[in-house]
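Reviewers of the previous submission asked for a worked example of the structure-prediction workflow described in the proposal, so we include one complete record here. The input consisted solely of the amino acid sequence. No template or homolog information was supplied to the procedure at any stage.
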Amino acid sequence: SWEKGTTYNITWTKSGNMNSRVKIRLYRGNTKVLRITNSTANDGSYSWTVPASLQNGQYKIRVKTIDNQVYDDSDSFQITDNSGQPSITITSPSSGTSWEKGTTYNITWTKSGNMNSRVKIRLYRGNTKVLGITDSTANDGSYSWTVPASLQNGQYKIRVKTIDNQVYDDSESFRITEASGTGF
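From that input alone, the workflow returned the following structure tokens.
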């Protein structure tokens, strides 16, 4: 859930050769409702303040190269009025992604409202905590983590929680798998 008037980072990853610039659009269903930007560097992040003029409801964001060759749509998310309640929303890992053992990924989240400036990050399998990823890091929206080779393959989720235990979010379920080229 993203609140009107709040600034969030739209983040994406890319692979292969493609245009160095992207355009970003906001959709409601299959209808384009807003041009967020017509051209920005294809560098994996764009800061955006949700306009107060948008209707509350379900939206998705499309990041597309300016030559229209490559694009992806975000999962559906909610845009709401500013509730004043502090919140954390994990943006990566997202549903359906696979993270390979031994590879470094960025755990990313957005935050709104007043909350502790530090968070702890945990890895869960079902409702069981498997790993304390970090006991304290800046609540700045990103943490770089190398997936340990010792983990079992399977479905996991990540929890980002303020160190005072007041505000947290769980990621969508994602897979941890063997590194490419192994496990055959």
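The two ends are 40 Å apart (CA to CA). We consider this example representative of the routine output the project will generate in years two and three.
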